[in-house]
Amino acid sequence: MSLVQRRRLTLARVLAATVLAAGVTGCAALGGGSAPREIYTLSAPSDFPASIGGSRAQILVPIPRAVAALDTDNIAVVSDNTRISYFGKASWSDKVPKLFQAKMVEAFENTGRLRAAGLPGEGLLIDYQLATDIRSFQLDVNGGRNAVVEFSAKIINDRNGRVVAARTFVASAPSSGDTVGAAVAAMNQALDQALNELLAWTLAKI
Predict the structure, then answer these.
(1) Do 73 and 96 touch, CB atoms closer than 8 A?
(2) Is the pLDDT of residue 59 over 80?
(3) pLDDT given for residue 35 in this prediction
């Protein structure tokens, strides 16, 4: 067999292997492979008391800080006070800091009591920044089943860099079970409570 014939045979084998691999991948995508992850999101508060304050300021909401274990799209479960694990085959719709950031902005917009709340890069003329640090965002199973949301917040005057006010927010809600669906429902209740408190506090300070 000549050198040209051997090269042609090798090329044919490579093409055949490529077609076979593509077929296997297609079967997996159609259901032959492992089951896809269930994706969950959270809602932002939309019902507020008439007594909530208002402001003509514009607020920048940077992405919150979080430790690596929470800087993920996994849904966290904390046991023994120190051990963090995650629900299998389930995830948030984005990494926790970005999901939390999006819900903060959405909640401020839902109040209708602020000139604007925006994300970095949107070109807003900013009066204040709301810097947050996520400390807990999980289902806590230490002696019970409770969703826990905890974060610190600082309102920073964007014109001089001074901290106007600072506070830590903690909210929890019981979970009806240890399934991911029950945990997400409880997380939504805890987040709703925490964001309502954050909104009222922020609008009273600016």
Answers:
(1) yes
(2) yes
(3) 66
Contact indicator for 79, 85 with CB cutoff of 8 Å: yes
Element (H, E) at 106: helix 96-111
Strands (E), 24-127: 38-40, 55-60, 74-79, 83-92, 114-118
User: What distances in angstroms separate CA 172 from CA 21, 100, 127, 134, 147, one per listed residue?
Assistant: 49, 16, 31, 14, 5
Query: Whole-angstrom Cα distance, residue 189 to residue 174?
Result: 9
Residue 96 has phi, psi (to 5 degrees) of -50, -50
What is the rounded distance in angstroms from the CA atom of residue 108 to the CA atom of residue 202? 10
Q: State the pLDDT confidence band at 130, using cuts at 50, 70 and 90.
A: very high
With CA atoms as reference, report the closest residue to 95 among 121, 63, 119. Answer: 63
Mean pLDDT of 177-190: 96
Distance (Å, whole) CA 204 – CA 206: 6
Please, are residues 170 and 149 in contact by the beta-carbon 8 Å criterion? yes
Rounded Cα distance, 156 and 60, in Å: 10
- Confidence band for 26, pLDDT divided at 50, 70 and 90: very low
- pTM of whole model > 0.85? no
